[in-house]
């Protein structure tokens, strides 16, 4: 009789136990537990490459400090740490796989107890590594502008657009985000009718969320929001379907970033750069109900970017100067978003058609609010939540919807990284054959 030193890294309590020589030869074949949570090879290759770069940079910094090198090493540190955790958890689970085949019943029981927590560790490490490998969106740390416009559905769509506007205002208030109304313009074509809970016929609105990082929180909200309900003006009780369009645009922070903003405005390489010579500026009288100021002074501003045809009009402020500032902010944000979308579209065209179908653009129907069924459904994440009044009040149910979309976007970005790595590998193989 002799001892076999079976010691699992995930559980140090397993000591060497005596086994008969005949027992060492008996091994029941079991499928590796870790297969279900292993990362794709392309993603692991990328992680290993970046971890090697991190180690090289750390070695270089030990003898010669350089701020640029240190910044890059800091960016790669999370990848290197997550890869180590993943590899350790994978090794532990592999050892447990082997221990489950042991002829020693007590040893198998101990190993079986360790499988669930170790599998959870591997899953957690895989998620962290995937997130670390996903390139950060260039606008992720910025504040944002949310634009609201009615879509198909006539007056009912304008009422619903106002309901969405209130929903995001309430959500920001509940979460503590600082927001302000940049533009709020109603239509005078309602004939005195009102929607649910006093909705106004909203023509166009812009809500600015001033907190850094708010773009990353709300970027998944861009697209077509559909509503199915019986309008308050409907006599026969028929359900109508209408929609509203939301745009989520990056916005430069106003406080403490003056020099940085000016650099972005004047740098032709910046997404926020606008050639003033390409912008047509018009002044006009404000429209709509108001006091002595409205319709009597030319305070309203319209800016048109001639090359793209993007036009912004602003009349919310009494001052022409303030309207001009607000119009320029929205114009720069729209152009920055358009340029970013064009680059993303070029990248998507290189990926597989399956991935391209998963991408959501501003023209897609992303969500449905069904009043009769008391239901809100996001068509990308597949989540269904009930208690629609809580959703429209920006409550906890709306939190669930937003979080499900953020998880969906992260998963899509991970798939895009995998596709890019596979494409790069195929291109490298193609060059090698030539």
TrEMBL record:
- One GO process term, biological-process aspect: mitochondrial translation
For this protein, what is any one GO molecular function term?
translation release factor activity
Membrane-spanning intervals of the chain? none
Q: Which UniProt keywords apply?
A: Methylation, Protein biosynthesis
Task: Tell me which GO cellular component terms the UniProt record holds.
Answer: mitochondrion
InterPro entries given for it?
PCRF, Pep_chain_release_fac_I, Pep_chain_release_fac_I_sf, Prokaryotic/Mito_RF
Q: Which residues form the Prokaryotic-type class I peptide chain release factors domain?
A: 285-301
Q: Which Pfam families match?
A: PCRF, RF-1
Record's family? Belongs to the prokaryotic/mitochondrial release factor family.
Q: What is this protein called in UniProt?
A: Release factor
């Amino acid at each position: 009789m002799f001892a076999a030193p079976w010691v699992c890294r995930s559980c140090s309590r397993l000591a060497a136990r005596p086994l008969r020589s005949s027992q060492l030869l008996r091994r029941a074949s079991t499928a590796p537990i870790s297969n279900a949570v292993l990362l794709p090879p392309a993603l692991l290759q990328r992680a290993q490459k970046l971890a090697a770069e991190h180690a090289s940079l750390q070695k270089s910094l030990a003898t010669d400090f350089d701020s640029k090198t240190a910044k890059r090493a800091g960016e790669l540190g999370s990848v290197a740490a997550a890869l180590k955790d993943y590899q350790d958890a994978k090794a532990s689970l592999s050892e447990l796989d082997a221990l489950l085949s042991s002829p020693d019943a007590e040893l198998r029981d101990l190993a079986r107890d360790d499988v669930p927590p170790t599998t959870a560790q591997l899953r957690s490490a895989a998620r962290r590594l995937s997130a670390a490998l996903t390139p950060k969106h260039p606008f992720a740390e910025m504040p944002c502008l949310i634009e609201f416009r009615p879509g198909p559905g006539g007056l009912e769509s304008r009422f619903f657009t106002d309901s969405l506007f209130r929903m995001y205002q309430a959500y920001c208030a509940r979460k503590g985000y600082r927001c302000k109304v940049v533009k709020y313009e109603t239509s005078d074509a309602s004939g005195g009718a009102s929607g649910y809970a006093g909705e106004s016929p909203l023509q166009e609105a812009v809500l600015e969320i001033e907190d850094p990082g708010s773009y990353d929180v709300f970027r998944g909200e861009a697209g077509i929001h559909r509503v199915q309900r019986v309008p308050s003006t409907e006599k026969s009780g028929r359900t109508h379907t209408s929609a509203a369009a939301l745009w989520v645009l990056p916005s430069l922070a106003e406080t403490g970033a003056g020099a940085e903003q000016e650099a972005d405005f004047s740098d032709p390489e910046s997404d926020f750069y606008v050639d003033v010579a390409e912008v047509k500026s018009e002044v006009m009288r404000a429209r709509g109900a108001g006091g002595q100021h409205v319709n009597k002074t030319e305070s309203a501003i319209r800016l048109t970017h001639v090359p793209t045809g993007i036009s912004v009009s602003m009349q919310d402020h009494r001052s022409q100067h303030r309207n001009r500032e607000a119009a320029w902010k929205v114009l720069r944000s729209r152009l920055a978003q358009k340029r970013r979308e064009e680059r993303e579209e070029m990248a998507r065209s290189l990926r597989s058609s399956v991935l391209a179908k998963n991408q959501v653009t501003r023209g897609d129907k992303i969500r449905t609010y069904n009043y009769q069924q008391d239901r809100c459904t996001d068509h990308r994440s597949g989540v269904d939540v009930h208690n629609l009044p809580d959703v429209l009040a920006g409550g906890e149910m709306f939190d669930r919807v937003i979080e499900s979309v953020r998880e969906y976007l992260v998963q899509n970005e991970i798939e895009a990284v995998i596709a890019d790595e596979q494409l790069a590998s195929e291109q490298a193989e193609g060059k090698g054959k030539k």
